[in-house]
Structures are given as C-alpha cells and as structure tokens.
Amino acid sequence: MPIENPSDPKQFRLPAGLLQQIWNKHGLGALRQHSYSRSGKVNPLLYVNHRYVLKINLRDPQLPKLRREAVVLRLLAGTEVPVPRLIALDESRELMPYDYLIMSRLEGKEIYQNWDRLAPAMRGRLCRQAGQLLAVIHRQQFPFFGDIANGVGELPHWHLALEQRLFRQLKDCQEWELYEPGFLDQVRAVFERAKSLLQSVERPCLVHNDFHLGNLLYQGARISGVLDFEWALAGDVAMDFSDPFTHEQAWQYMLEGYRREHAFSPQFEAKISLYQLLTALELSVVARQHWSQQQLAYYQERARHLLAALQRSTY
User: Fold this and answer.
1) SS3 for 64?
2) Are residues 91 and 130 in the same domain?
3) Closest by alpha carbon to 148, among 82, 90, 76?
4) How far is CA 95 from CA 23, 25, 30, in A?
5) Alpha carbon distance 117, 120 (integer Å)
6) Residues 149 and 47 in one domain
7) With contact defined as beta carbons under 8 Å apart, do 257 and 130 qualify?
8) Residue of 32, 89, 94, 28 whose CA lies nearest to 64
9) Cα 229 to Cα 71: distance, rounded to the nearest angstrom
10) In 6-119, where does DSSP find H-type helix?
11) 42 with 87, same domain?
C-alpha cells in the first residue's frame, strides 16, 4: 500500500488499510474515524477515533525522537503536568518505514493560534501556569547529562554534552557555508571562555527543549496540555529559555510563574545568552534545509547579534 506524499508532513497520507493494520497490531479495535492535523510541520499527526493521536517520525528517521518523547511521557505520568498517555511506541518499521508513537488525545486549543482572541487577563493567567508547569518539568532529574533516548550520549558533565552539540552545529554550519569566514571560530572562542560557567551546572534536569506557545493547549482558564517532547534532554534548565516566546508579554508572564516554583541561579542570564546562540546556529541549519530564505536570514542575523553581545559580556 503506497504512502502518499512521503516527503511532505502536511500532505502525508496513510492508506486506510495500513492505518487499520497499525490499530490491529496494538489492539486498539476498529478504525472508525481519522483526520490529519494541520499543525504538523515536521511530524505528520493523525487524530483517530477522537481519542488517539498517531505521530510519525517522517523528517528525521535517523533520530530517536519518538523514543525520547516516550521516555518523558512515562516520566511525567502522574505529575501535575498534563501530558498525553503513552499507548505505544513502535520502532520496528514492520508496517511502514518510519517510527511512530500512539498517545491519548488531549482536549484544548493551541495557545499560539488563539493568542489574539484571548483577553489580556487570560493571557497572563495561562502563561503564568505555563511557567509553573515548566518548573515541575525541571524537577525531574537524571543520573547523567545528554540524550535521554537510549544510553548513547549519556555524559557525566553538562559542559561535555554541550560541547558535543556545539561541535555538530558548527560542523553543519560550515558544510552549508552559512556564515562568513572567521565567524564560527569566534563562536568557539566564546564557548571556550564560558567553560567554567558551564562546568558549574551540576543537576541534570529534564529539559523540554522546545517549550513555546505552539506546544501548549488550554481549555477554559487552565493549561490542558504540554506537548512535543521529542527534543527533550537531560541538562541545564536554562536551556528552556533559549528560544523566547513569540510575544514578549507572554515571556514575562511565563518567567513570573516559573519564579514562583523555581529560583534562578546567579549565572542564569549569561547561560541563556550562550544557549540562545547555540539555538540560533541550529535553527539556521534547519531553515537552510527546510524553511524559507527569509527565515534563514533571520536566524543568521540573530546569531551574529548574540555573538557580538557575548563578546562584549563580562561573564
């Protein structure tokens, strides 16, 4: 049974017969209804029988993204963080050439898509809740730093995990020729100067690593869902502040809620700037591969601005 548009997450379509085979394999009964999410930019999402979500790792089949997500869903089950219930993770590729995850469907609307419709007081209430929930996420700890997926990449120190990630990003930026000569050497120098700052991180906490309004659902006056843990890692909590919310007001509300539950370290702001630079480098590569020239130019300029600010910093 051929899969339609296998390279485009938004146009990706599974034959109904194949979907029923998947449902049979996991003992989920008859396939009565299914629809495709319009918001799946990277991973196709199917809503099935109004109760389940089928998520398919289409764009990055070489990465254990859904295994990471499964680890986190198990870890957060029973906490106050509203996450889907894990039904099944299938990495066998017996029925299709992609890993997939089945989880319960949460009720609610995406905050980002509905921001303009929300009253100012409700925006503040929801974003403060988001900050408090992020603090709960950060209470979960691991005995190692790095990738939480499969034991590969588990490291005893945060600076080693970050050096690995920086090495990959610099290599990709160089291969795609995204920056002017000398720029990447200056990035290396900034991170080398910050080594003692990064060595001060001692607690390997659960980091969402993609925490923004588009991954938060709300129902009424409460956050009803925190989604998309496929990039989660064990690391420094400041990583979750490296890609600020689209709306500055939302960002400030979220920080206010977070501070109610979790104190910031004295070096918090300096580390955020480093992580923002790393994120900008990473997203410039993603933009070059998958997004528009305008988005690429935005992240390139952001990386240049962050590097200049860090070079002036006295951290």
Assistant:
1) coil
2) no
3) 76
4) 11, 9, 17
5) 9
6) no
7) yes
8) 89
9) 9
10) 16-25, 65-76, 111-114
11) yes
Q: Which residues contact 152 (CB under 8 A, 6 or more apart)?
A: none
How many residues can be counted in the chain? 315
Helix (H, G, I), strand (E, B) or coil at 49: coil
| Number of domains forming the structure of the chain | 2
Tell me if the pTM is above 0.85. yes
Cα–Cα dist 85/82, whole Å:
9
Residue ranges making up the domain that contains 82: 16-104
Q: Is residue 11 part of a domain?
A: no
Does 290 share its domain with 168? yes
**Do 220 and 290 lie in a common domain?**
yes
**CATH code assigned at 70:** 3.30.200.20
Tell me, yes or no, whether 189 lies in a domain.
Answer: yes
The pLDDT tens digits along the chain (315 residues) read 567 657 688 789 998 899 999 999 999 999 999 999 987 778 999 999 999 999 999 999 999 999 999 999 999 999 999 999 999 999 999 999 999 999 999 999 999 999 999 999 999 999 999 999 999 999 999 999 999 997 767 899 999 999 999 999 999 999 999 999 999 999 999 999 999 999 999 999 999 999 999 999 999 999 999 999 999 999 999 999 887 666 788 989 999 999 999 888 888 888 999 999 999 999 999 999 989 999 999 999 999 999 999 999 887
Task: Based on the fold, state whether residues 122 and 231 are members of the same structural domain.
Answer: yes
Q: Does 84 share its domain with 115? A: no
Tokens for 226, please give them: 């925190």
Provide φ and ψ at 192, rounded to 5°: -65, -40
Q: What CATH number has the domain bearing residue 287?
A: 3.90.1200.10
Owner of token pair 């990465």 = 63
Amino acid making up residue 23: W
221 shares its domain with 289: yes
Look at the block and give the residue holding tokens 């034959």.
15
Q: Which structure tokens are listed for 314? A: 């006295």
User: What type of residue is 269?
Assistant: E
